[in-house]
Design a protein that fits this description.
217 residues, mainly beta, Jelly Rolls, nine-stranded antiparallel beta sheet, three-stranded antiparallel beta sheet, 14 strands
């Protein structure tokens, strides 16, 4: 498994290339449960072409409790363990608090959004080709103190307000849940993803610092 750390404006974004492609049986399960229609009814246009924010979303917000998807849950847990231990270098425990799936057909995409009520987000690309996850910042890192409009010579992680991360089948990307993000437009027959969110559990803080708190699940 390969991993790439993307320090966009200092946010810990990590792309894991697991090479673990789901079986056709798993894909059929995800197709079957992704039945809830979603559309934000906003017109989208790019390069003179119209695109649709309509796609299918699972009714269930805890799909990884399905025993038939335990192999996908393990992929999430293995990647997140690496993310917390090796990249964040923290000891705290986390758990999967929500999980869902989406199905997008050609010309569809998931519009700009955030994930409230959790700390980290993770996305597993069960089936994806020529895809990207796009992150958006209100300001670039160099605009945080002085909101100037700079003349950009070449875009990078310091002067950009958006960043494209290319993804393929088997990839997992983990990032802080407050980051605004959207998918690229699906260019193939279908794109199937599984999303999950993580929250902290157990004791945080300390009595010595008068800030101890026990978060029970």
């Amino acid at each position: 498994m390969s991993k790439y750390i993307l320090n966009v404006a200092g946010y810990p974004i990590c792309l894991f290339q697991t090479n673990k492609i789901p079986t056709e049986k798993n894909l059929n399960i995800l197709r079957k449960i992704s039945k809830k229609g979603f559309q934000d009814n906003k017109p989208y246009e790019l390069a003179g072409l119209n695109y649709s924010s309509k796609f299918k979303l699972s009714y269930d917000s805890h799909i990884l409790k399905n025993k038939k998807l335990k192999n996908i849950e393990k992929i999430f847990l293995d990647c997140f363990k690496d993310y917390v231990n090796d990249i964040l270098q923290i000891k705290n425990e986390f758990y999967i608090c929500n999980s869902w799936s989406t199905l997008q057909k050609k010309g569809e995409f998931h519009p700009n959004h955030t994930h409230p009520n959790h700390i980290f987000s993770a996305v597993y690309y069960a089936k994806a080709q020529k895809s990207s996850l796009i992150f958006h910042l209100e300001r670039s890192r160099i605009q945080e103190n002085f909101h100037f409009s700079y003349d950009i010579k070449e875009y990078n992680i310091y002067n950009s307000t958006s960043w494209f991360v290319e993804v393929n089948s088997g990839d997992v990307i983990i990032f802080p849940g407050q980051l605004r993000h959207e998918s690229s437009v699906c260019e193939n027959d279908e794109r199937i993803i599984v999303g999950s969110s993580f929250f902290i559990k157990g004791k945080i803080g300390s009595e010595e610092m008068y800030n101890d708190l026990n978060l029970k699940v």
